[in-house]
Structures are given as C-alpha cells and as structure tokens.
Amino acid sequence: MNDMIVIKDLHKYFGHIEAVKGVDLTIRQGEVVIVIGPSGSGKSTVLRCINHLETPTSGGIYIEGVHLEDKKTDINAVRAEVGMVFQQFNLFPHLTALENVTIAQRLVRKRDKAEAERIGMAQLERVGIPEKANAYPRQLSGGQQQRVAIARSLAMNPKIMLFDEPTSALDPEMIKEVLDVMLDLAKEGMTMVVVTHEMGFARAAADRMVFMDGGQVVEIASPEELYNNPQHQRTKLFLSKILTH
Amino acid sequence: MAGPEVTPSFSTDSRNRNEPFVAWREFPWWLVAIFIFLGVMTYLILTDEEINQAFVFIFPGITTTLYLTLGGFGLALVFGLLAGLGRISQNRLIRNIAITYVEFIRGVPTLVLILTLAFVIVPAVSASFGIDNRDVSIELRAILALAIIYGAFLAEIFRAGIESISKGQMEAARSLGMTTRQAMQYIILPQAIRNISPALGNDFIAMLKDSSLASVLAVRELTQRSRLHAGSTFRFPEAYLVIVFLYLAMTITLSLLLRWYERRLRVGER
Ligand SMILES: Nc1ncnc2c1ncn2[C@@H]1O[C@H](COP(=O)(O)OP(=O)(O)OP(=O)(O)O)[C@@H](O)[C@H]1O
Ligand SMILES: [Mg+2]
Fold first, then answer.
1. Which of A83, A92, A213, B195 makes an SS bond possible with A161, Cβ 3.0 to 4.6 Å?
2. Which atom of ligand 1 is nearest to the CA of A45?
3. A111 pocket-lining for ligand 1 (C-beta < 6 Å)
4. Shortest Cα distance, chain B CAs vs residue A51, angstroms
5. Residue A166 has pLDDT above 70, yes or no
6. Which pTM was predicted?
7. If you write DSSP's letter for every residue of B82-115 in order, what string do you get?
C-alpha cells in the first residue's frame, strides 16, 4: 500500500515548551490511526502539523510524498486534500449548512454553484441531515453541527481526514450520531487520523492505535493488543485511568 | 452554604408585577423633549418670517453636508479597512505604517487636521502628481480630510472587529485550502462587519456632525450657510437655531434607526 502521510522526526516548540519531541509515524492509504494520550501530550500539535496549521520547528511532514515544509509546496493545494474536523466544530456562523459545505468547493476547487450544491447536498445526505441544508449553525444541535463540519470537509473530496477530539464538546446523547458517520467513513477506506478517547469507536474502526505521552510516541499497536496487553508502564497507567471512567 | 433557590415563577411574577412601573420609569422622556423641540422649531420655521428666511437660505446646504458625509464616510471605510488590516498584518513595515497613521491622526485635533490636510497636505500631494492645486475643489479636499481623519478611527473598529472573531474560524477556512485572503474576505470580514456595524453607524453620525468643520474651508454646507446668513443679516439666533434643528433632526433619526437595527441584530443572534 502507498504511504499517505509520513512524519519524520517531528519537533515542535512553543516558546520554551517542547510540545512534540521527535515523532516518527507513517500512515498508509486507507488506514485508520487513532491517537490517544494524556492532556498536553502533543496529540493536537502533531495533527495540526499534518495540515500545517502549525509549522514544525524541525523534522518533516510528507503527504503523498509532497514535502510540506518545502517552500515550493502549494500548501493550500495540499490542505484541500486533507480535511480537518475540530473539537469546537468551527462552522461558519454567517452561512447556512449548505453554504458551509459549498464555499470552499467554489473558492478552492473552483466548482460552479450548481455542481458545488449537488456535491454539498450529497454530503449532507451522507451525514444524515439534508433537511437542515438551509439552517444556520446556531439553529442546529451540537451533533448536527459536527456532522455538517464533517460534510464540509468531505465535500472537498479529501484523501485524508483528520479529527481532533470530534465528540469531546458534545452532549453524550449526540456522540453516537457523529461516531456512526466516522465509522462509515472508515469502512469506506478513508485514510483517517483521529484523536479520541472513545474506546468503542477505536475498537471498531482503528487499524492501529498510537499512545502519546510527553510529546513522544510511546507505543503503537492494534486496539486489541493495546487494550489487552499494553507493553509500557505509562500506557498501562493511562489506560487504567480512562477505562475506569 | 447554598442560599434558598429563587424559583423561576417567583422571578417571573415579580417582573410582571413591576412591569408597568418599569415601563413608566424607562419611558423615553428624553425623546419626547427632543421631539417637542423639533416640533416647536418646525412650527416657527413655518410661521415666523425671520426664521423662515434663515431656513430658506440655509437649507440648500444640506445637499453639500450629505455629500461631504457620504463621500467622506465611503472613503473612510476604505482607509479604515486597509489600515485595520495593516494593523494586524504579519509584515512589520505595513503594521508600523498603519500604526503611525492611526496614532498620528488621533494625536491632533480634528479642526487642525482639516486645515492642515486641506491647505498643506492635499496641495503638496497634488503638486507632486503634477496636478494644479486649483483643480482640487475645496469640497473634495474636505471629503479627503474627513476620510483620512475618520479612516484612523474606523481602523481601530475594524481591527477590534476582526480580532473578536475566534481563531478557529481562520483555521477552519485555511484547513479547507482557502488562502488567507479568501478566508478574510469570505469568512472573517462578513462576521466582523456584522459585529461592528453599530459602531460604524455611530461613527457615521459623528461624521455627519463633524462635516460642519468643513465650514472653516468655506465649503457652503449647512454651518457655513448659517454663518453667512448671520453675518449678512445679524440674525444670529435664527441662523444658528435653524442648523441646530437640522442637525438634530438628522442625527436623532439616524440614531433611532441604529437602535432599532441593533435590537434586530441581537434578536437575530438568538
Ligand atoms: N499555541 C500554543 N502556544 C503555546 N503552547 C501551546 C500551544 N499549543 C499547544 N501548546 C502546548 O503544547 C503542549 C501540547 O499541546 P497539545 O494541544 O498538542 O496537547 P494535546 O495532547 O492535544 O492535549 P489535550 O488532550 O488537552 O488536547 C501543551 O503543553 C500545550 O500547553
Ligand atoms: Mg488537543
């Protein structure tokens, strides 16, 4: 299989804080990788480096062989191929759901209005809320907003989807509707990197799990191995904390 | 220790009970006073010969006043947006140019700026472009002066408006592949402008009033016309009461519209 994302010796400083201390990770096409770890362990920072929302201090990110830190790389072209879903949804509040899913198609993919709306509606249907096409984000529940946010990314036909704690801001009864959409996506073969502590989802969707602590990758394993037979003391400690919750 | 819980029904009751009283206290007496003044003035303009004469002479100046205000404000929006974006630019040179502009203007009285811009800066700049000084009409100079002055104030409003939009909006837009410029134009600015529209409205009203300063340039707007009328007839009370009436009628109308718009904006957010 092709290597979709290659992270080579990634370091990231914020001032004097070294948030990421040398991460190496290769993610293949169609793979679903789930990243777990305690707060402040650098999970978000690694994810945000993958689409260059953060610039690595050193080391490199390669998307389908394209080196992001290379000055000649058109970062906007790469980002169009890498969808990102945020904890806080970050829908555009002045636009309707349908406008949210069409605006980047039109500006970045240069699709005409009719085509963008056709694709946008198809994505809203896929996430199960076509009837909310003309609603504004403030008129939607958290779960619906997050599904629109996923549709917004998918409408760009990305090759990779990044999720940063997509269900952490949701009321419990809305978590499932979002995870179901993500699970479908995983089954369809999307390359996904997901920061989440939803263990049921991890079991069902993950090809590999990455445990991070202190800015480093401590352990990489299949969900079964990681849950049932963690190799490192730090992993055991962390799992014992979250699994009792 | 937790205090006794105030039940919703209690608070609703007490508010209902107080409502007529609150409404009475909140009644806009100030507006009544102003309308009485405007009404009396209208009556005098229609009935008093001297005041009527003053009105007939002064009123045509309203075209120039509106022309100065609309032209000045339109240009000021452009200057203000550019300077506001400059203030938050990553480029240190652009940022410093924008800050210099804003601080310079804020540090000098408006009247002094109008005189300096109209009689020193505009002639100097037009000369450097090879334009004859006399080809730049005094109205245009007044508009440029008002625009440059208000641009500096609007720059701060634009900057604050842009900075009030959460960082996640820019990140979401960029992560979809939009350029910074596209994100600014289609995502950040529409939200920022909506948020700052009441502040922009206030500055429009302020500029309508400050357009009277153009009278020092002998632009024949409302204020200059009443000065001319007072000078030639020595009817000072008539001349000045008429422009007080005209300015107040315009500003009170605008500020009531603005209040109504603000309320609608707040309802829309819910
Ligand atoms: N923009 C920033 N400026 C300064 N420090 C930052 C910034 N972003 C992250 N950090 C720091 O970098 C470290 C790693 O943060 P990061 O957000 O990647 O952790 P995380 O694993 O995603 O944590 P969480 O589970 O709380 O989201 C933390 O110590 C954090 O305080
Ligand atoms: Mg995080």
1. A83
2. 18
3. no
4. 7
5. yes
6. 0.87
7. HHHHHHT-S-HHHHHHHHHHHHHHHTS-HHHHHH
The predicted complex's ipTM stands at 0.93
Measured from the Cβ of residue B66, the count of other Cβ atoms closer than 10 Å reads 15
Structural contact between residues B210 and B270, judged by C-beta atoms closer than 8 angstroms: no
Write the residue in B175, B186, B194 that is nearest to A103 by C-beta.
B186
- Nearest CB partner across the interface for A79, out of B168, B174, B269: B174
Res A32: pLDDT: 97
CB atoms within 10 A of CB A221: 18
Residue A12 CB–ligand 1 contact under 6 Å: no
Q: How far from B6 is each of A198, B12, B16, B144, CA to CA, in Å?
A: 39, 10, 16, 58
Name the closest residue on chain A to residue B172, using Cα atoms: A90
pLDDT for residue B268: 67
State whether residue B260 sits within 8 Å of chain A by CB. Answer: no
Q: State how far the Cα of B134 lies from the Cα of B136, in Å rounded to an integer.
A: 5
Predicted confidence (pLDDT) per residue in A103-157, tens digit: 999 999 999 999 999 999 999 999 999 999 999 999 999 999 999 999 999 999 9
Ligand 1 close to Cβ of residue A37 (< 6 A): yes
- Cα B222-B228-B232 angle, rounded to 5 deg: 145
